[in-house]
Each structure stands twice: as C-alpha cells, then as structure tokens.
Design goal:
Blueprint: H1 3-9, E1 19-29, H2 35-62, H3 67-81, H4 88-109, E2 125-127, E3 132-135, E4 139-144, E5 147-152, H5 157-164, E6 168-178, E7 183-195, E8 202-207, E9 211-216, E10 219-224, H6 227-249, H7 254-269, H8 272-287, E11 290-294, H9 311-335, E12 340-343, E13 366-368, E14 375-377, H10 378-391, H11 393-396, H12 402-407, E15 422-424, H13 426-429, H14 435-444
Parallel strand pairs: 8-11, 10-15, 11-12
Antiparallel strand pairs: 1-7, 2-6, 3-4, 4-5, 6-7, 8-9, 9-10, 13-14
The structure holds zinc ion.
Zinc ion is lined by residues 352, 354-355, 369, 371-372, 374.
Amino acid sequence: MVGCFLQASLALTNDEEDALIVTRTVIVRSERISKKLFRVFVELEGMYRNIVEQLVIYSAREGITSFIKLKALKYREMRNLYPHLPSHYVHTACQDASTRVKSFLKLKKEESTNKKYPSVKRISIRLDDHLWRFEGLTRIAISTHRGLIKVDLIPHKQLYRYFNSGWRLASEARIKIDKKERRLIAYLTFRKDVRLYKPSGYIAVDVNENNVAMLINRKAYLLETNIERITLGYYYRRKRIQKKYDKICGVKCRAKRKILRKLREEESKEDTRWKVANIIVREALKQGYGVVLEDLGDKPADNMISRIKDEQLRHRIFQAAFKGIQRAIEEKAKEYGVPVIYINPRNTSKQCPIHRSEIKYNGSRIDVCSTGKEKWHRDVAACYNLLFKALGGLERCSHHHPGLILDGSHVPLGSTTAHEPIGIKRSLWARLKSLDETMNEYKMIGMNIQGQTVRLSRMEHYR
Ligand SMILES: [Zn+2]
C-alpha cells in the first residue's frame, strides 16, 4: 500500500543534494619506539607547539582568522626560526593555529571566555601529504628535522575494514605523542563519496525510554534498549563520584577525572546506539528504504519517567540519550547512502493513525481507539503516524491519508500488528548484526513469528 505512493511523492528532487562525502577518523597506535628515535618526535612536537603558540597569540591579537592571511604574514618568520624543520610543518601549524583562533574568537564573541589568548594545551601534530606516507599497510614514514623516520603501526580489524571497503585514505593526518608508552598515536582520515538513493519506502523509527520501535512493511518491532536504566544509572554514579571527590580534594581533582574517564569508557562499551543503528540501517539498505525519525526539537515531556524529580533535568537527560541514538542512525545511514527524514512528532502517539481520533492510554502502553475501537500499542501508533506524515498525506489532505486510500479497506493494518509488536530482548539482538539473524534465532528457539499470533514477550516489559 505504501510503496507506490512513496515512489511518486518522495523522489529526491535535486541531483546535487543527494551526493555527499562522509569522513571518518581511525585511531591507530604505533609499536613502541626506541628512545633515540622517540626523542626526535618529542623535539618535533616541541617546535611545532612553539610555532602554534606564537601564531595563536599573534592572530588572536590581530583578529586574523584566515589561514591564507596568517601564512602570508608569518610564514617567513617561522621558517627562519626553525630552518631544519621541513617547511610544511609551518604550513600545517598555520592551519592548526587558525582553527584554534577561529573557535576562540567565537567563544569570545559569545562571552564564554575572558582569556586574552587561547591556551594551547593538547597538541597533535598535523601532517600533510608532504610530511607523511603509508608504506605497505602497517608502516608510516614521517618527515622530521632529522630526516624520514619509519614507524610501525599496530593495525586492527577496523583499519583493515576501511582499507578494504571503498574508503580512501586522506592525505592529511595527525599524530600525538604518548610519552608514557613511547608510542605515536596516529589519527587517520578516511573519506567516501556517497550518493543517497531514492527510497522506495520507509522504515519509521520511534525512540523511547526502554525500546526503539520500528515499523518495517507493516510489521512493528520493539528493540529493548534499557536506555532508562543505563542513562539514569550512569547519571547517578557520575553525580556520586563528583560529590564525593569535590568534598575531599576540590573541584579540579585528578583522581576524580580519572574515575570519571573510566566511567565514560564503560558507558561507551554499552554501545547500544550503534548496534541499534546498524540493525535499522542494514534493514533499510536491504529493502531500498529510507528512515523516518522524530524531530525531537519539541517532543513533549509527557512520557518521561518519574525517578528524577526535577522535570526539566529529566527531560534533558533523556533528550540527550534519544538524540544520541538518532545521531548514530543518521551517521550509519549516511555511510550507506540511506536517506533520513525528520518529522514533527506532535501527537504521533496519541492519535489513531486510521481514524485520526484520540487514543486514550490509561497508564498502559496499549489502548483502544475512541472511534474504531481497535487496539493500539502506543509505540506502534507513533511509528504509523510518523510514516504517514512522512508520506505527506496529512499535510496535503487532512481527512484522508494515503494508507486508507491506496489500501481501500477500513482497517488497512493487520488486526494484531497494531497492538502486538514483536518485542526483541536486548540480550538477543545485541549479539547479532541484523534483523534477519535475530529473527532466525527466534525461529530456532521455537517461536512462531510469521502469524504473529504468539506473544513473544508479554507486553509487561514495555509498560
Ligand atoms: Zn482508530
């Protein structure tokens, strides 16, 4: 019912709009470097830092943000300062400095800083195509004031994947110096040209506290995510750590920072959002569909949880988590050329997608349409509404929407799908890469998903 309508109304109009370049940074550590060679890199970093510092002070004072202007004014002087340094380091240091000054002057304008100059604390040395090259797949050669130095990298699976799957290595890179470990850390940039395809349909995705609901070809799936538990858990632990250490050793405490950093690492290991994004984008790609997401800008705070008393704070924490998931979906989608559109979510979970009358939820996530008396699961209703809004039907004619017209029946949706989405536990989908795999696993454990007559996970999980 949906396919033909979509093709007609959602063809991308402009050819240039659907072409884009996706950029990713891959971090690779080097093997340990001998003391003698490592000293060269430490010297190099010292000189580079000094140049950047001088340039930053100069251009902040003079209000210069243009790299070309800065280079024109200061190149000679800096060159003469370190005549043995390959000249392109002055070039990249100018780029580095002008980026730093640009963001500093912006802060200054917003009155977010009262410093006179930006401080240059962390430094990574920028390299351009004259300053480094790859030799084979695991060794880089870097040009220094003591000649070309070759350093072996410790490759990882991710790096090989970028080398082997249509990405091209950019000529610019950065290196950081790890003095404790005597290693270099290389930041490699990969790029890929992507063309967004014209979708022949859409997957609607609704992100909630405890699941991500998706509607694919009239089947609704709920991926259990436990965002509520995870987000709040980390929020409280972070607060506790901060409170404890602020009392003992002041706000700027090194030990506290270390513990907080560890917590963030743990947090990122719970990479729920990337796994969810992967499942959704792979499915969209397979079907040639796009993805519809809610525009969270003004989502009402009606479905927020009650454990945090401060309503605004609660809202902010969850919006951040939801947007994190959406961003992951968008990033993944971009990489594979899957178009994504955002829809205003107003009333999406309160209105019956068929009759457009109110669905009243009395504390549960399933209830009855006030006109047609059919049952709706809140998240499924939201997905259908997002989809229909995406199709443009609601905007164009308010009383008929495309689903009804094209299908020709009074209840175009399967009688059970509307209130019995397929719930998939996190323990199941998180291990697997695609929906297919996940569903196969379901079959293996003996559940009938075809007719959807079997309730897979009694709905109490989602209330
Ligand atoms: Zn209805």
